[in-house]
Amino acid sequence: MRKLVWLLIPFCFVSRSHADPVEDSIKRVNAHISIEDYRSACLEARTVITEFPKSLDAVGAYIRAHAKAGDEKEMLRAWKYYCTLSEDPYKNRELPEAMGWSIIDKGSKSCSPLVRVIALLGAYFAQDARGIRVIRRSLRDFDAMVRDVALQIAATLKDDCLLYEVLNLYQMEQIWSVRLTAIKAIGKMKIKAALPVLMKLIENPGAAYEMRAAALESISEIQDNISRSDLIRLASDSKTGLRELACQLIVSFERENDLDLVLPLINDHNAEVRAAALHCIGMLRPDKIEGHPIPELIYSTLNDTNDTVAIMAAWLMTLYDSPKGHEHFIRWLSHGDKNTRIFASAALKATGKYGQPLLSQAFNETKDPYVKMNLALGLLSQRISTREACRALHNTLLEVKDRLMWKEIFHFRAIAPSIVRHNPAVPHLPEAADSLVRLEVFNALAICNDPHAQESIKKFLEERDPGISATASSLLLMEGDNRAAEMVENLLDHPDTNVRIRSALILALWGEGEKAFPVLRDAYDDADRNMKERILEAFGKIPRENALPFLIDKLREPNSNLKIIAAAALLKSMYN
Predict the structure, then answer these.
(1) What is the pLDDT of residues 23-34, one digit of tens each?
(2) DSSP secondary structure string for all residues of 313-357
(3) What pLDDT is attached to residue 469?
(4) Which of 111, 289, 415, 460 is the most buried (most CB within 10 A)?
(5) Separation between Cα atoms, residue 281 and residue 554, nearest integer Å
(6) How far is Cα 175 from Cα 169, in angstroms, rounded to an integer?
(7) If you write DSSP's letter for every residue of 44-84 in order, what string do you get?
(8) In the prediction, which pLDDT does 115 show?
(9) What DSSP designation does 422 have?
(10) How many CB atoms are located within 10 Å of the residue 22 CB?
């Protein structure tokens, strides 16, 4: 054995003598990085770059080491030097990636909760597995706002390592709003281990309605199937939440043959269960249940003492083309309570063709601007009286000065007065919610070729606070076609700088980055901080060859938020 070792020694020296000294040194740098000894990696990298100052690989290793160490200034100084050595520095995508993740990772450990939230969002928008570590850390954050945002993000990823974290957070969480978000996340992630916990929640009569409603929805998302015997047990249970769950599951699994279990619930002592039973029948739309026509079965509920149940009955009766539904809708549309009128207009809108001609009649007669807008959207969805509906939407949006929001009212969506409150994690949230409504309406006008559409869009872009999220503005084009895009593109030459910038933001987020690039690039330096954030967000959608030089330069921004947003946009641009 000893003889064999001595025989191999000459070969070892030969191999070593032909080794690349730069490559060996870089391997040592990478070894330190792999064991997370970043200080030694930086020292080793400094030695390499001192010996081989013209080696691109050596400078690259130096950048990676300082990126891992979180030394932004030295990392960016080295990048600037790297650019002088390389003809195409952006060809090596590993280095921009390392710099972007360095900024985000450092931001996620900031002492400011808002900076940590922005870093968390950056990790998410980068859409890379490396972001999971930041998200997982954020689920354990001591700040409720950070945990809430992390839950919303985790719910969209469904990563295995996040399932336990989300369930554990729900069980330990003390903040009501975060617990509610956790329940919703559990459903979206289909965490089956949470079923006993959620069942216990809906069985609790003292639990808040929002909690129980979220738990019902999550359970229906988690369940793969359910037996009739289980439905019988739920539908006849003494606990209100379980009877509601029976209705929810029958709809989720389209169990029309089990609708006989819903019949007794139409006359349940609890109004929420009665409304859920009516919704269940309406979603499955059977001709008969146990040989009885539906209008005959639900007739008595039209005069229910609970407004929600009575409106649901009018909705269901209308779906079966019964004039009785129209008769009862009329009194709810002119009810003394504004919220009741809005709910009724949303329910009537949801009846589609079955709501005609009452929909047109009520649209012409109502004086309530919110009812008017909801009914106008109902007319547009059926392409009935489109000119009148478009004119009403255009004029009403000009007249209504209050903020608006989309409100979910027992499965129906309606435009309503905004009750959205400020959220530190989402700057300008009430204004952004209002913008979403108005932009979606403008989009409907554009689709219908309304002559007022471009005027409405221009006025919106002129008057909106520049701090409103450009992401909200991009919704304008989500459901539209080329006509809406052309309207916005025409505004790139508008004399008003703000209109040009906001138009470019919308186009960039829609994927028309090449057209938006010159406007956004030229506007950045003179923009305020809020607008700079929006511009950096939009650069994540701009083609890589234009975006990377701009975004890497913005990693030098003195403001932490801007740096992190630039890093997230950099990664997103590279991965798109």
Answers:
(1) 888 899 999 999
(2) HHHHHHHTT-HHHHHHHHHHHT-SSHHHHHHHHHHHHTTGGGGTT
(3) 40
(4) 415
(5) 56
(6) 11
(7) HHHHHHHH-TT-HHHHHHHHHHHHHHT-HHHHHHHHHHHHH
(8) 87
(9) -
(10) 16
